[in-house]
Amino acid sequence: MTGLQPRGLSVAAYPGHNAVDHQIIEDLGNGPVLVASECPRCGLVRYPPRELCPDDLTVMRTIPLSGHGILHQAVRVDLAPVGFVAPYWIAHIDLPEGVRVYAPLSWDGDGDPPIGLEVTYSIGIVRTEPEEILGPIFRPLGKAGG
Amino acid sequence: MPRPVFIAGVGLTPFGKFADQGLRSLGRRAALDALADAGATPADIEMISCGSARSGILQGRESGVGQLVGWELGIKGVPVYNLKAFCASGTSALNVAYMAIAGGFHDIALVVGVEKMSQRSGKGRTLTSDGMEVEGDLGFAPPAMFAAGALQHMQRYGTTREQLAQVAVKNRQAAYHNPRAQYRDLITVDDVLNSRPVAGPLNLLDCCPTGDGGGAAVLASADGLRRLGGDAKPVRVAATIMRTGLYEQFKDLTSYQLDVETAKIAYETAGVGPEDVDLAEVHDAFTITEIIHCEDLGFCEKGKGGPAVTAGEFSLGGRLPVSPSGGLLTKGHPLGATGLAQVFELTEQLRGRSQARQVNGARVGLAHLNGGFQEGDMATSAVTILTA
Lengths: 146, 388
Prior knowledge:
heterodimer; A: mainly beta; 5-stranded antiparallel beta sheet; disordered N terminus; B: alpha/beta; two-stranded antiparallel ribbon; about 20% strand
C-alpha cells in the first residue's frame, strides 16, 4: 500500500468538479474500498456514486462493493492517454450489487481474458500523471493482488 | 403548430490542422460563405446560435464564441446563444435556432459551429471527453469505450475485423471526391489492418483524426426566405431532435437505445421512415460506431451492419449512402463544427450540388450525432432530418 490517501479519483485535474463527484473509493472503517450509492427508499444501486436517487430524489447512502465480479468485456489499450503506460487492459465488470464498473484489469494470461472470468480487486495507483491517483485494479480471482 | 423552417444557405471551411487559423477566422469564413449562399447580409441576421465544445480548455475562450464570430461579421445588437453539448454542440446550435424560428420569435438566424482541436497538449495521445472524468482517470478513453463495443459486436453478430476496416475504406472513397476532407488518399483494408494499434480491434485508421474547422448555416422562416436574395434552393428542416442520456447501468455495448428512441421521434416528426432516407451522415468517430449507428437508425437489421458495408449498401452508389462527405473518419472531428458539416453535406446533396459524390435524386437526408458521456452512457443524442 502506498502512503497516498484513498481519495478516489483526481479532483485537481478537473477544476469545477468537487470531490464528491469523483469519489469512487472510501474508507468505511476497514480500509479503502470501491463504493456505490444505494437508495434507502427504493433500493436502487448506482455506480459511480451519486447524491440523489434518480428515480425518487431520495438522498442515497454509500455502500461498499464486494468486488467479486464477472468480466463483461475487456479491451487491451495500445495507445495510452497521459498518465498510463501501454499496453494495459481495461474492463467492464458486473458486480453482484447490481452495477457495472469499469476499471483496469491486471492480466498476463495467454490470449484475451475470457468473458465470464471471475475477478476481484485491490486498491492501487491507476494513473501516474498529472498526479498519482488511486483506484481499483481488478485481477482474476485467486491471483494475489498488490 | 411550429412554423416551417428552412436552410437558406450553408458554409463550411476545409477541415484539417491549421496552425494559422483560429476560432475567429474559421467561424468567420464559414459564416461569410453561409451568408453569401443565402443571399443574406449581416444586417439580416436576427440571432446567432453557436456551438463549440472545447474552446475553453483548448483556447482559453470559454464563453462568447458566438459573439466573437458575430463581431467579426459586424453583426450587432442581436441575441446570441452559445451551446456546448460535447460532439453535438453544432447540432445543438441548429436545434436552438430552429426553435426560435419555428416558434415565431425570429425569421432569420445564423448558426455557427467552430472548433480548433489541433491546439492542445499531449499531441499523439488520445483526447478524453467531458463527462468521462471517472472513466478517464481509470484508463478508459473514448477509443477504448468503443473498442469494447466492437469486440462485443464481433462476438455477438460475427462482425469481422475486415468489415470494420471496410468502413474506413468506404469513407475514404467518398472523401476522395470532397475537397474539404482532411484525408483524401484512397486506402485499402490492409492499410487499416496494418495501421498502428489503438485499443482492442481498433487501429489508427479506424479512428477519426484530429481536425480544425468551421461550419455555418442560415436558417429562415418562409417570411425570412422572401427577404433573402439567395438563388439556391432552400432545404426544409423536417426534424431536429435532441435528447439527454438514458444512463443505463447495464447498457448494451452494441447498441445505443437513446439513439433508437431519438431516431423514432425524428422519423415521426418528419413523417418519414428509415426506408425513405436517401443519404445519411452519422457519428462515425470510429469504424464500429458507423456500423452501430446504421443499425440503430434502422438502415439495416441489427447485427447486419458489417455485411451491409461490405456489400456496398452504404457506399456512394449503394442503396443508402452513409458518410458521403467522407465522414468524421476522413474530415476529422472539430466538435462544434461537425454538426454543421453534416448539415452542409445534406443540404448540398438535397440541392443536387455535390458533383462527383452526388446521391442522385436525394430527397431525404439524415444526420446523427451523439454527444459526451455520463455514468458511462451517452449524454446526448441528436438526429436531424432535412428534406428537399
